[in-house]
Structure formats: C-alpha cells, structure tokens
Amino acid sequence: MERHYDLVIIGAGPAGMTAAIYASRAGLKTAMLEMGAPGGKLIKTYEISNWPGIKGTNGAKLANDMFEHSTHFGAEYLYGNVVKVEDGEEYKTIICEDGTEYKAKAVIVATGTKERMMNIPGEEENVGRGVSYCAVCDGAFFRNQEIVVIGGGNSALEEALYLSEIASKVYVVIRRDVFRADEIVQKAVEENEKIEVIRKHVPLRVIDDGNRVTGIVLQNVDTKEEMTVETHGIFPYIGLDPATSFLEGLDVLDTYGYMTVDENCETKVKGIYGAGDVIHKNLRQVVTATNDGAIAAQHAFHEIKKI
Ligand code: NDP
C-alpha cells in the first residue's frame, strides 16, 4: 500500500504534534506516524511545571490536549513502525515494518529518545517483573515497599521524588558522589526523609526468585566491595539514546546518533528535518521540542509551496 502526503511526521510527541498543528493549519496534507500512544515522554511524566501559562499539570493530560489539537486542522494520525527513510528526487519514501510505504515531499523526524539500559545480568529478563523504566506507569505496583532508583540526573531524581509518595522508602544509587540533576531537584531529594542516597556505587546484577525481582547487587566504585539491596522494584534512569536507527545510511546523524540540523531544523538532506529530543541540542524540554516542531513545519511549508 502506498500513500502520498505533502508532509509525513515520524513520531507524535510534543515536537511531532506541534509540527502537525503548524503544517495542517497552513494547508499541507499531513500525516503523523507513531508506533505507540501519542505524547511521547509526556505520558510517562507525572507532573509538568514548566509549560508556560500552566503552573502545574499532569503529563498525560497535556499529551491528550496536544493530541486533540494536533488533529484538529486535518492532520492524520496513523500507526506505523518506521524502519527506513529513503531520499528521492521528487519524494521521500517512508517504509514501515509491515511493508506500508508513504511518499512525502518532506519528512520531519521527531522520534525522541529511548531509555538507556543498565546492561547488567538479570536486567532484561526482569523487565515487567520488577525492572521498570516508567515510574508513572509501574510505581503503584510497589506501594509501601522499598524501591531502588539508579541514576543522578534530572529524570532519576524527579522520578525518585514521585516514587517517594508511593513507596515506603526509595534508594537512589549514583556512581559518583555528586548528582548531575539541577540544584532545585537535588535539594528536594536531600530534604525528602523517604529517600536515601547510596553514593559511589554502580549496579552489578539484578537478582530474582524466578518469578520476580528480589534485589540488586551494587558495587562500591572505590573498594569494589559488593552490597545487596533487597527490593521488588528497580527503576533505572541512567540517560537516553536517540531513536534514529532507521536513518542510518542517510548521513544525517552525529557520532552519538542524534540528528544534525540547521537553524530551520533541516538536515543536510533537503526536505528531511529533525525536531525535539532526537536532534543534537543542549536543552531537551517540552517547550524546546514544540519550538523545533513549529520551525521545521513552517520551513517545510515554505519549501513545498516553492516547489
Ligand atoms: P542524564 O544523562 O542527565 O543523567 C544520567 C544519570 O545516570 C547520571 O547521574 C549518570 O551518572 C548516570 N549513569 C549513566 N550511565 C550509568 C550507568 N551505566 N550506571 C550508573 N549510572 C549511570 O540523563 P536524564 O535521563 O536524567 O536526563 C536526560 C536529559 O533530559 C538531560 O538533559 C536532563 O536535564 C533532561 N531532563 C530534564 C528534566 C526537567 O528539566 N524537568 C526532566 C528530565 C530530564 P554521571 O552523572 O556519573 O554520569
């Protein structure tokens, strides 16, 4: 099956949905391709407190509002797991896992990032049995229990704060003796009586009883001594990697796999844009993602109308 559009947007997070609003409102025949629920990381975020005009809102609610808005001007929302994008003279071809192909004059890639795994024994086989990368989705399974969060960045500390409202205790494991997160989040963690920080330790292996997680073995980075924390819930938040494997071969990625774009959010392949967390940038936030989506869609609109 082949379908033709002016613009195909891959990924329906804040960047993709904003691009859909701008493009369809400008009159482009637009489709958003998404392999999960619309909203991207927003739906996994408990609270958003830095979206201008709203002091505090729930991530899933904001995602839902954005989704309704993104299809309001006629953009189509389609399921698709994109495995390849090909550049052509007249059209770009977007190929999905099930063989469906879409043709578009321009493509905006807004696929974001995916959670980095710890890559330690016992992790992969215990995903869904105690290892989780989404506190908002799975935190409630561990009500009044002790939970372990791995990492010291904004994600880890913000999720630890969220989990502290559910769990009886939250251990935060960091590999240095300092956090990477913003000061304000660090302060909240340090003042939280339910959170205990285990410094200078790295995760070594996840242990289970064949059914579910029963603990995690940590290693002191200086002494190499091992310790076991008994827990049924482990939440690794150790960073993110860009979801760009389907772009390999197009020469639009940097050495870390992020997309390299210019001030119009366009890559060096004309008509292929990047927007949101997937591009090389300093600040990955909802507000900067929406900014990229608007810029990319507006530029694509002008280029398509020139054609
Ligand atoms: P970060 O890269 O900021 O932090 C990753 C954390 O995990 C660091 O503490 C790092 O340690 C640790 N880590 C990395 N690899 C390992 C490992 N193998 N074993 C143990 N620990 C490890 O990732 P985040 O996901 O927290 O954030 C990504 C981006 O999103 C950042 O730019 C962040 O600021 C932003 N963000 C902003 C938010 C907000 O402003 N509200 C909310 C969430 C994210 P070390 O420090 O030693 O390298």
From TrEMBL:
**A single GO BP:** removal of superoxide radicals
* This enzyme's EC code(s): 1.8.1.9
Q: Which PROSITE patterns match?
A: PYRIDINE_REDOX_2 (PS00573)
Kindly state which keywords UniProt assigns to this record, in alphabetical order.
Disulfide bond, FAD, Flavoprotein, NADP, Oxidoreductase, Redox-active center
Out of the domains of life, which is the source? Bacteria
Q: Which GO terms describe its molecular function?
A: thioredoxin-disulfide reductase (NADPH) activity
Entry protein name:
Thioredoxin reductase
Q: To which species is this protein native?
A: Amedibacterium intestinale
Query: Which lineage ranks, top first, belong to the organism behind this chain?
Result: Bacteria, Bacillati, Bacillota, Erysipelotrichia, Erysipelotrichales
| Name of the gene this protein is made from | trxB
